[in-house]
């Protein structure tokens, strides 16, 4: 089986590797690049634990071949911390509002919520629930995840207003 | 979880893609958003030896809207359909239905062309396209042709698309002024295929209905359309009920689905009538 040369930007860094085209992006991230924040919770594209940001879209990395992502710009939860390594507002709010327990869905949740707030900076509770519906959580019952995302939106909006 | 081995191709034109399909025949599949094909490959239900990725084929992108016709590129994603305000104002039922398909991540990559070409009776767009009387433009080495959505579906995963053809665009006549619309879908949860769903367009002298996941193909009946256009709701519902043949599965026994189909259809008609003027 022939490998192909793959090049992409992951969390701001250019990476190159040889990989089989059939390798799933989630396995490429976890096994080739040791970026193990994104997780695998199913094999039917439901759970969203593998969610990454690919060229500005929330995508389930278990349902993308590495060949398709050749040349793409990928961000994982590891790339969402502040420049100084401290937690982003969204990450901080998940902690503050107890938006996680086992933590297995959290990287996908935060990566998805990051994109959701880029597209809709001031969502209603219903919009958050609908916007997060591609991500399953076994522990929290979602309530605190919704609170965390709404709190992050409020804080980010306040910061934006203060900066203007 | 682990798909079989394949060779990967990324053409940048329809001609190039059609050439690859002709060359590899049955051993090749086109890869659009990949959100039906890749899951099937991960379960080894599909084992193509060649994948022809269409992501770089610019001709398959874009939505164009004229005064009487809408043309949607096959590689336009569900997310793009939803975001397109001009499309939502021309044919609002498309946004309403797309929001009931899958989940946000799937909608960023899943395409309208893949949804209609897949041939799974669970997909929502095929019924909607029959309701809208859309046509599919398909291209192959021998040239292009148009196939009416109402004649495209032959059975579960069997369509009028030949092995060496690519579905390139979907063409829809703008619904008549004053018509109302609704896409009503009953499902167990977000992301599920419909237990039963109905697409309805209705207005003065206008009626069109198609049903999703109540048979091997979407269900469309000329008799139902005629009855609805005359304002005969009971007649339209009866015609649809005679045409459906749901299968029993985890979503419920056939008898339940038949009952549900009637409920969903009446709801869709009522909502569409409320929007007509």
TrEMBL record, chain A:
Domain 2Fe-2S ferredoxin-type: residue ranges: 4-80
Coiled coil spans: none
Name under which the protein is recorded: 2Fe-2S iron-sulfur cluster binding domain-containing protein
PROSITE patterns in the cross-refs: 2FE2S_FER_2
Organism, scientific name: Stappia sediminis
Keywords for this protein: 2Fe-2S, Iron, Iron-sulfur, Metal-binding, Oxidoreductase
GO MF, one example: oxidoreductase activity
CDD domains registered for this protein in UniProt: fer2 (cd00207)
Alphabetical list of InterPro entries matching this protein: 2Fe-2S-bd (IPR002888), 2Fe-2S-bd_dom_sf (IPR036884), 2Fe-2S_ferredoxin-like_sf (IPR036010), 2Fe-2S_ferredoxin-type (IPR001041), Beta-grasp_dom_sf (IPR012675), Diverse_Oxidoreductases (IPR051452)
The keyword Coiled coil appears for this protein: no
TrEMBL record, chain B:
A GO molecular-function annotation: FAD binding
FAD-binding PCMH-type domain: residues covered: 1-177
Entry keyword Flavoprotein: yes
SMART domains hit by this protein: CO_deh_flav_C
Keyword annotations from UniProtKB, A to Z: FAD, Flavoprotein, Oxidoreductase
InterPro entries (UniProt xref): CO_DH_flav_C, CO_DH_flav_C_dom_sf, Diverse_Substr_Oxidored, FAD-bd_PCMH, FAD-bd_PCMH-like_sf, FAD-bd_PCMH_sub1, FAD-bd_PCMH_sub2, Mopterin_DH_FAD-bd
Protein name according to UniProt: Xanthine dehydrogenase family protein subunit M
Lineage: Bacteria, Pseudomonadati, Pseudomonadota, Alphaproteobacteria, Hyphomicrobiales
């Amino acid at each position: 089986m022939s490998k192909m040369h793959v090049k992409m930007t992951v969390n701001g860094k250019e990476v190159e590797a040889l990989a089989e085209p059939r390798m799933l992006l989630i396995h490429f991230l976890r096994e080739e690049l040791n970026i193990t924040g994104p997780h695998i919770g199913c094999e039917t594209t439901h759970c969203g634990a593998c969610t990454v940001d690919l060229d500005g879209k929330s995508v389930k990395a278990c349902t993308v071949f590495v060949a398709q992502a050749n040349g793409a710009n990928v961000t994982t939860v590891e790339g969402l911390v502040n420049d100084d390594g401290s937690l982003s507002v969204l990450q901080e709010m998940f902690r503050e509002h107890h938006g996680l327990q086992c933590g297995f869905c959290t990287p996908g949740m935060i990566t998805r919520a990051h994109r959701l707030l880029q597209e809709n900076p001031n969502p209603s509770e219903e919009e958050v629930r609908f916007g997060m519906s591609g991500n399953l959580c076994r522990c929290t019952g979602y309530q605190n995840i919704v609170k965390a995302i709404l709190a992050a939106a409020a804080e980010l909006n306040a910061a934006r207003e203060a900066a203007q | 979880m682990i798909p079989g081995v394949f060779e990967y191709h990324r053409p940048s034109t329809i001609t190039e893609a059609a050439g690859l399909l002709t060359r590899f025949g049955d051993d090749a599949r086109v890869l659009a958003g990949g959100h039906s094909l890749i899951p099937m490959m991960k379960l080894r239900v599909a084992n193509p030896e060649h994948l022809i990725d269409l992501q770089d084929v610019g001709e398959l992108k874009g939505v164009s809207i004229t005064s009487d016709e809408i043309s949607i590129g096959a590689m336009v994603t569900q997310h793009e359909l939803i975001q397109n305000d001009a499309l939502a104002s021309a044919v609002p039922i498309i946004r309403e239905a797309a929001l009931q398909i899958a989940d946000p991540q799937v909608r960023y990559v899943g395409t309208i062309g893949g949804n209609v070409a897949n041939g799974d009776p669970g997909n929502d767009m095929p019924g909607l396209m029959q309701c809208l009387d859309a046509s599919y433009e398909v291209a192959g080495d021998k040239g292009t042709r148009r196939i009416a959505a109402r004649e495209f579906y032959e059975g579960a995963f069997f369509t009028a698309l030949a092995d060496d053809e690519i579905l390139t665009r979907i063409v829809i006549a703008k619904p008549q002024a004053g018509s109302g619309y609704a896409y009503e879908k009953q499902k167990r949860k977000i992301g599920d295929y419909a237990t039963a769903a109905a697409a309805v367009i209705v207005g003065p002298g206008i009626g069109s209905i198609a049903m999703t996941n109540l048979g091997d193909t979407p269900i469309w009946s000329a008799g139902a359309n005629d009855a609805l256009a005359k304002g005969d709701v009971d007649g339209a519902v009866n015609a649809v009920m005679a045409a459906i043949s749901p299968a029993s599965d985890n979503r419920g026994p056939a008898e339940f689905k038949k009952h549900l189909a009637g409920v969903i259809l009446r709801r869709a008609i009522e909502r569409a009538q409320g929007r007509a003027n």
